[in-house]
Amino acid sequence: MYNVRITASDVSNLNNEPLELLKKNGFDVKEKPFKNIKNEEEYIEFIKDADALLVGTETLDKKILEKIPNLKFIARRGVGYDSIDVDYCHINNITIARTLGTVESSVSELTMAFILALTRKLEEHSRDIHNGIWNKRLSSGLKGTTLGLVGFGNIGQEVARKASVFDMNLVYYCPHRKIELEERYNVRYVTLDELLKISDFVSLHMPSTEETKNMFTYDKFKKMKKTAMFINTARGSIVNEEDLALALKNRIISGAALDVFQEEPCLDSPVLKLDNVILSPHAGTFTYDTFYSMNLLAANLIVDYFNGVIDNKFII
Q: Which among 235, 242, 251, 263 is annotated as catalytic?
């Protein structure tokens, strides 16, 4: 019998189907949400006998992975994997799989919500009325504006599909051009510098890697329009937060919306002191439907892996 340990939050409390699936297939399943674990010692004690893990964004670095000698498989609920030491896993024959195809809708919805909120000045209007001020602010709207997508994977493509409904012009940059998708999404490939120069909205949809860490610094923001808005629903490490705060404070760009941060929870950052940035607590995937889909797919990936039938498209 293989041991499955679940540290991702909001699994059985939302729907017991993933645990039932695992148990039906003969796994010994124990669940302890990481948010309820007091310290690293308790974390390691809980997962040390695991053959498979079902995890969220909790850290699995070399120091921790070395203490799970039987570990064969990690089901990452979500698509980012910067919290996992991928090199160690590859060297030690630990397979990592992600729940691709489950997060695109909810993250792209949040991206569009940010764009709409920034454009129509929803934060300012709401704040005014709460303070007893009736002040109608003019805004540009979205029709005819340009949305620049930095990264054009599954989430970027879904943002493009949604944004096209608002009659926006779409451009994208990614390291490897995707010509076969350009006509489908009515999107044009440009260099990063060109994207920054022409976009009214710059939205990040890249993974956190050694190549993308600290990719957006003050110099990048200086290349954007002064009226431009910056959106990050990808990973906080891609952006130099201090430089972004300085660009916002100096009105180098007009506004920003962030769902991700360099340090999470984000309780001490220069962006917290600014009134031209909208913040949310890394909640891009936090819808009931998305969590149900992610949890069930993660459980199925564990079953498929140990049955030798896992689809390689999910594997890192």
A: 235
